[in-house]
Structures are given as structure tokens and as C-alpha cells.
Amino acid sequence: MTPDDATLVVGATGTTGSRTAAQLIGAGRHVKAASRHASAVPGAEPVRFDWYDPASHVEALDGVDRVYLVPPVGDPGPASVMLPFLQQARAAGVHRAVLLSSSAIPEGGPAVGAVHQALPGLFDEWAVLRPSWFMQNFTGTHVHARSIREHGSILTATGSGRVGFVDADDIAAVATRTLIDDPAPNADLILTGPEALSYDDIATIVTEVTGQPVAHHHLTYDQFRDRLTAQVSPEFAAMLAGLDRAIAEGAEDRTTDAVQRLTGRPPRSFREVAEREMARQ
Q1: Which of 111, 114, 142, 116 lies closest to 129, judged by CA?
Q2: Strand partners, 217
Q3: Residue 157 belongs to a domain
Q4: CB of 154 within 8 A of CB of 203?
Q5: In angstroms, rounded to a whole number, what is the distance separating the alpha carbons of residues 177 and 172?
Q6: Do 138 and 75 belong together in one domain?
Q7: Considering the chain, what percentage of its residues have pLDDT values greater than 90?
Q8: Long-range contacts of 221-224 (CB under 8 A, 24+ apart)
Q9: What ranges in the chain are assigned the alpha helix state H?
Q10: What is the tens place of the pLDDT at every residue in 33-54?
């Protein structure tokens, strides 16, 4: 990396993209903040970027030597737009790519799993970040957060299954290190918080932090899928409900040391994040 090289942050106004851009800027890096409307990000160079508009990709890649990739939201087959872009990026001189995926999606799996599988063949320097569910789902604009604020409830089909919820700031801290540090990880990194919690545990902590009663309501897979179908396509609703069912069966009941290893500090607990962010509401 030279002083003139830029890091392209795709999704720079989103949950992890905005935090990653801010941390890169804080580290003295030149950041091109990519979003559909070229929105201003303090300290970054704004650039318009739309996954579905190849004409926007040329300017976005100009002068860039590494990229942080947030897949297009809600696209069940993002490889069809992401892989041509990544091939173009490599041809344009990008040599490091860091992909945001999910702990629920393995290499070669559905959705962004196909991009994960292709990434090592496209770039010599790479990392795939596979965070567990975001703690900010309960503190930001996610449906769970809105339900907590408006109804004092969380509705899932997760049963008593536990999740290693992770702070979006910790995800961004890992993203920053994987973009800056040498050598590149060239690894698949599952990111979690310090403990696995059930949604009942989350409701209890939010109640204690805010002083407002919050309850976790247990739905069946069918009930949860049908609720989601009113908001998204039936196929996407079935996939999301299936993720809850996987949690109920123990698929996310784990923690890792990846945040500690990559950042040199322990990941933040959900109680810490709730106290930091829910006090502002």
C-alpha cells in the first residue's frame, strides 16, 4: 500500500461499512466511500456505486488497491453481480479483498457462499468475515429493535437456541485489521461476541438495562415464516425462518477468539453494547 492507494468500502453508509470507513480514516487511510447516492461520509471520498449498474464500477475502482465488500441486500444470488465486479477489480489493480458474509453461510453455500468460494482464486490477499448475528439488531433499526421499542417484545422461532451475538464495532475493527495488516489473513473468520446468549437472555438484559419490560415470544417455524411473508418474498421468508430454526437446533451456539486475535482486545459483551447504545434512545 502506498500513500496514494485507496480502500473502497462498499456499503459505506451501512452498519459495518460506516464503522469500517470511520476506523480506516482514523488510521490515516484514504477511503472511497461507495453508496448508491454517493452519500457523504466524514473524511472519505464519496463515490456512487450500485451493484446492478456496471457503469458505476469504473470510477469506484479508480486508484483502489483493496476493497471491503458488503453484498447487495436481499439478493439470493449475489454472485451474478459480485463476481464480474471482482474480476474487474482484479484487472484494475485491486490486490486485497475482504468479504462480509455470515456465520450461517459456509464456503460454497447459498447466497454469498459462492462468492466466498471464488475469492481465493481471484486475489492473493483476502479474508472472509463471517460474523454471527449483530448485537445492533436489538439497538438500531432492525425489526427486533423496533419491536422492542414499540411493543416490548422480540418474536423469533429460535426457541431456547443460543447465538454468539457480535458488536458491529468489533466486526469493523476486524475488517480494518484485515484490510491494513500484513500479511493478509487469507482465512475464513467466524466472528462472535464473548458469550452465546438465547433470545430469552437478550430480553432479560434489555429489560435490566432500559428498565422497560421486554419479553421473547416463541413462534413456530410456520408462524414466523408466515409473518415474514407479509414483508418479503415467500422464498426469502422461508430462508430467514430456516435460519431461526437452525439456531433452535444449536447451529449458532458457539464463540470464537477471532476478534481477540485480530484486534488484540476481547470482544464486547451484549450488556456493554446495550448500555452504550440503548441509553441514547
Answers
A1: 116
A2: 155
A3: yes
A4: yes
A5: 9
A6: no
A7: 90
A8: 221/157, 221/245, 223/157, 224/155, 224/156, 224/157
A9: 15-26, 57-61, 79-91, 113-122, 143-151, 168-180, 199-210, 221-229, 234-248, 258-263, 270-277
A10: 999 998 889 999 999 999 999 9
- Distance, in Å, from the CA atom of 125 to the CA atom of 217, rounded to the nearest integer, reads 44
Question: Which CATH number covers residue 139?
Answer: 3.90.25.10
Mark whether 143 and 75 lie in a shared domain: no
Verify that 79 and 198 share a domain, yes or no: no
Nine cell digits for residue 46 = 464519496
Q: Which amino acid is at 83?
A: L
Q: Is the pTM of this model over 0.85?
A: yes
pLDDT digits (tens, 9 = 90+) for 3-23: 469 999 999 999 999 999 999
Q: Which amino acid is at 115?
A: V
Confirm if 129 and 174 have CB atoms less than 8 A apart. Answer: yes
Dist. CA 71–CA 82, nearest whole Å? 7
| Binned average pLDDT, 10 residues per bin, the chain of 281 residues | 79 96 97 93 96 96 98 91 98 98 95 97 98 96 94 98 98 98 97 98 97 97 95 87 97 98 98 90 49
Residue that the C-alpha cell 448475528 belongs to: 133
Residue with cell string 480494518: 176
Any domain includes 183: no
